[in-house]
Every structure is written in C-alpha cells, then in structure tokens.
Amino acid sequence: MDETSQQNHLKAYGITYWCLTNQYKASWLLNYRGGSFLLPDAANIRKECHIRGVSFELLSDDQANTILEEIASPSQNMEAVVLEKAPKIAVYTPKGKQPWDDAVTLVLTYAEIPFTEIYDTEVLTDQLVMYDWLHLHHEDFTGQYGKFYAAYKNTPWYLEQKQEAESLAKQLGYGKVSVEKGAVAKKIRDFVVGGGFMFAMCSATDSFDIALAADGVDICEAMFDGDASEPNYQSKLQYANSFAFKDFTLERRPEQYEFSNIDMTGQRHIPMDKDYFTLMEFSAKWDPIPSMLCQNHTQLVKGFMGQTTSFNPDVVKSNVLVMGACELNGEARYIHGEKGKGMFTFFGGHDPEDFQHKVGDPPTVLDLHPNSPGYRLILNNVLFPAARKKHLKT
C-alpha cells in the first residue's frame, strides 16, 4: 500500500473487506509500506485482486514471519492489527437523489464494500442496533435545510426537499422538522454511546453537534419552521451535550450559508495549489486507533472544500484528537474522539477529489483517482471497526 507499488489503493480495502466476509484472516500492518494488508494466499483471493486491478505480492511463510518480526520490534513504529469481522455499514441518506453526491457512498461503491441506506424512519425505530458503523455526510440536523435559503429558496429542488422533510416529520409524529432532526441526532448519539462507530463529513459534523447542544431550544427562524427563533438562544446552548465542539457561536442570519464559527470556510485564503493538510504521526503500538485512521501512502493530503471545510481549533474540545491539520490556515481537518463506549470521526470537506464542489456538479469518477489519499482516510474509518479489540491489563 505504499505510493509506487499499489495501482489501486481504494479497491484494496474492498479486497480486504471481501476476505473478512468470506471468513479469511487478515492483518493490517500499520506503518509498514503505507499500511499494507497481510492476507492468506488463496487462489480466489488472487483472482479477485486480478479482477479488481489490485496489486499484491506473494510471500513465503518465512518472508511473512520476517516482516512480522520486524514490525514487532520495539525500535519500529509499526504494529500488526488483526482484522476479525467485516463491520455492518449503514449510510444515512434520504430516499431519492440529492443535487450533490456523497463521497462515502461513492467510495464504498467503487471499492465494492456493501452498505445499507437508512434514514430518519429507520433511525427513530431503533434500527441502528443492526449496524456497527454509521456514516453521515452533507446533512443538516438543525432543521434549517442546509442554510441554502438565500441562494436556492425558489428552486424546485429546494422547495421539494423542504416539503418532503416537513411531510416526513409529520408522518413520524413531529410538528417541526427541527424537532424531528433533533430526535434523530439523539438516537445517533445513543448509538455511539452504546458502542457504535460514527463517521461524519462536511455539514453533518457541525450541524450534528449544534443539534445536540440546542436540544429543546428553538434556533430556527420563521422561513425554516414557521415561527421566530427563541430569544437569547445562544446563551441556552448546552455544550456538554455535543461530541466534538465547545463554546461555538451560531450564525443567526438565515441568508448566511453557514451554521456557526465551528467551520473556517469563510476564513480561508489558501490558493488551490497550496491547500494541503498534514496527517499526524502516532505510536502504532501504543495508539493503534489513530494510527489505523491515519494510514496512508503520504502524510500530506490535498485539501478540499465543503459547506463545512475545516474546524476552528479554538472550539474543539480538549479530549478530541486532531489527526490532520492545515498549518497554513491554523485549522483542524480530521478529528477523532470517544463518546461512551463508542467512537466518532469528523472529516471536513465534501469530496477529496473535487476542490470546490457545487450544487449540480457531476459526481467524481473514482476510476480517475484510484490512489486518492483523501478517499483512503474515509476507507480507514470503514475498516477500523473490524480490528480485534485488545484486552487491557488491570
């Protein structure tokens, strides 16, 4: 999985997932040649690699043992992590097409990793317990319809989306979309607290935390929910309820395409050719979780924008780990934390291979980006729940 030897990094994750679903053993060799996978030598695995265009090398038992001995050496920042079971994956997405694409849905499909689409009905009827991993992308859990009001309030797709959301909320027994979305956010919170793993990108990151902090507080203006917002709602936010962010200030103006000062999109003045963020290096033996989530063939990842591009480090909670940062703009791009028995990862930006994705743009063709470092970070999160949990000494 190093830079020059693997012709399709993304599909290699699909091969590893396929092996797990077919009861094969697999190991993730952290920091060894770009985070390589050690799989059994079986004819059908080799055939699957050939079909999908994934590079592999054949090793004798002696060669494999030599590599594992090297990895086990205390002098090497490497670790071999056993992958046991293919996680059951759910993607939170509304029924039907949206006027934008979802980077995670794209890469799961490209890597041939199966997933189930779920939405509010499934979440509110406690179906999340069926899954190990939940993905959220370009979502708005605050009931403000993505803050698209100023630019798109008269477009057919916006009006249709608003009507569908209101109809669904009513069907589910809620008088307002904001209240219904808040209930969904709390169910997702309970899923994580109970031991689930959540991965969020773009506006799902900050809008999720805002919805939790604003539980029971009306922060929506009349064009969103039919009545005025609650007076002094900023002072009523409960930051203890949120996962990753604290002390943030909400954007009150409904015509402003922004939720709060969590996001740093409006403060960015970085030319496209200089927009990169750096992945942090962790101890593979002592910090295997962030090491897994940062496996890549490069530590320097090309930046990309979104409604929520990056995170203001001043409002990131102290117990949340920053795994990727853009030093040029002083922003966090890739963060991870624990909540209860579960974990979450937030990744800023919309599409790792589309610098400034706009509504109506065509989907990215991943055949043109089979070795994308940004998309690899997404797949690290997909495969991470398969890792064997180590028993801690007491």
Description:
The chain has a 9-stranded mixed beta sheet with strand order 5-4-6-7-12-11-10-8-9, sandwiched between helices. The chain has a 3-stranded antiparallel beta sheet with strand order 2-1-3, with helices on both faces. Helix 1 (9-21) crosses helix 4. It is an alpha/beta fold and 394 residues long. It has helices spanning 9-21, 43-52, 61-72, 103-111, 120-124, 149-152, 156-171, 177-193, 203-213, 222-225, 288-293, 373-383, and strands at residues 26-30, 36-38, 79-83, 89-92, 116-118, 133-136, 197-201, 276-279, 300-302, 321-326, 331-339, 342-347. The model has no long low-confidence stretch (mean pLDDT 93). Helix 4 (103-111) links the parallel strand 4 and strand 5.
Structural key phrases:
394 residues; alpha/beta; nine-stranded mixed β-sheet; three-stranded antiparallel β-sheet; 12 helices; 30% helix; globular
Number of helices: 12
The secondary-structure element order is HEEHHEEHEHEHHHEHHEHEEEEH
- Class based on secondary structure composition and strand pairing: alpha/beta
Question: What gross morphology would you assign?
Answer: globular
Number of strands: 12
Largest sheet: 9 strands, mixed
Indicate the low-confidence ranges by residue numbers: none
Record the strand order, biggest sheet. Answer: 5-4-6-7-12-11-10-8-9
SSE diagram, text form:
Layout: H1 9-21, E1 26-30, E2 36-38, H2 43-52, H3 61-72, E3 79-83, E4 89-92, H4 103-111, E5 116-118, H5 120-124, E6 133-136, H6 149-152, H7 156-171, H8 177-193, E7 197-201, H9 203-213, H10 222-225, E8 276-279, H11 288-293, E9 300-302, E10 321-326, E11 331-339, E12 342-347, H12 373-383
Parallel strand pairs: 4-5, 4-6, 6-7, 7-12
Antiparallel strand pairs: 1-2, 1-3, 8-9, 8-10, 10-11, 11-12
Helix pairs in contact: 1-2, 1-4, 1-12, 7-8, 8-9
